[in-house]
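Chapter review: from sequence to fold.
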Amino acid sequence: MSCRKPRSHGVDGELSTYRSVFDAIERRVLPEVEFGRSMPILIAAIATAILGFALPHTGSAHGYDVLLRTSRAEAESAGVLPTLFVVFSATFTVTVAAAARSLRRFRWAGLALAGNGVTTVFAVLAIWSRQSLTPDAEFAGPSIGMYLGCAAALLSTALWARAVFTHPHGPLGAPSHC
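The token string follows.
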């Protein structure tokens, strides 16, 4: 890639009169994120995360029970990690991802990437904490809702990473000048 400056036609040249228009267009288009063919997959990941809230997370406690800390969640002893996972999943895998998809702004995409990355870590830790119960424990392990939520967070993280790191002006969104 060449680092030479673009040719200027001078004050009287035909392109210099449009310079402010070109700069305004560049400022408007630069922060937009293009998804391409991964948009339906992203929508499916959001829908899968929502479905995960309706399905059991652990024993008889559904995802929304863990989110709202109902008596079912208390009865299944859904601890801090499953609760953090469900809160982060509702916030980032569903809400922020849907907002970033709708707004198509680069900063929202970066926030969705970071939040879904943390959500994925909490998901894996929540599954691990439910699988590593003592043999005499009377509580159930992880259920299908927790696994679906983990898969949705992981898929969403990968899709947002692709959208952020394949941005034409790099992951920070600013054009590189030589």
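Two observations follow directly from the output. The chain has one domain: 29-165. The domain at 29-165 is CATH 1.20.140 (Butyryl-CoA Dehydrogenase, subunit A; domain 3).
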